[in-house]
Amino acid sequence: MRVKGGVIKSRLEFVRDRSGEPAVEKVLARLSESDRDVCAHILAAMWYPFTLNASLDEAIAAEMGIGEQIFLLIGDKSAAHNLGSTHRAFIVDRDPHGLLRRASQIYQMYYDTGRRTYEKLGETKAKLTTFESETYSKHDCLTVIGWHRKAIEMCGGTHVRVTETKCRAKGADVCEYVCEWD
């Protein structure tokens, strides 16, 4: 499986914005030489191995010192950046269900295998399910949670809760997220 370079770039930009260029250098120093070389020339629209993204996640978690919660923050920042600029059309109606209905399209912009479905569970509740993804990680799932929390907020939802009810990284056959808001 591969991820778009924008996914990797957003992680590096998060570290840079939060802790400066020295922190980015420390994160990159934790990677293999070949991964460091690739990270020096990431293009947002190119595809890169998911394993590079997973290695970068491990390095960020180790270097940033606040544990896995860092990935919720990375997802939040990524949504704010992408939905505030290049993907603004997804939130133009300020309708959380309108955004979530496009889950399949959004997923395909970031990952090259698998698919994500949307199911409306109520006026302020929906379920997203990711199927057939070749690779997965708990860090990526946390980023997905942070991304969707922020995206729903940007669509007007308040008191947003996104709960992963099934996770492939924990042995389930799919990743499933229940999204709720006021």
The radius of gyration over CA amounts to 16 Å
Q: How much β-strand is present in the residues?
A: 15-25%
Cα separation of the termini: 35 Å
Number of strands: 6
Uncertain runs with pLDDT below 50, 5 residues or more? none
Tally of alpha and pi helices:
8
Please sum up the structure shown.
The protein has 182 residues and is an alpha+beta fold.
Overview of the molecule:
It is built from 8 helices and 6 strands. It has helices at residues 5-19, 21-29, 33-39, 50-64, 70-83, 96-100, 103-110, 138-154; strands at 2-4, 47-49, 115-122, 125-131, 161-166, 175-180. Strands 3-4-6-5 form a 4-stranded antiparallel sheet, with helices on one face. The longest helix has 17 residues, at 138-154. The chain is globular and about 50 Å long.
Topology, pairings included?
Blueprint: E1 2-4, H1 5-19, H2 21-29, H3 33-39, E2 47-49, H4 50-64, H5 70-83, H6 96-100, H7 103-110, E3 115-122, E4 125-131, H8 138-154, E5 161-166, E6 175-180
Antiparallel strand pairs: 1-2, 3-4, 4-6, 5-6
Helix pairs in contact: 1-2, 1-4, 2-4, 5-8
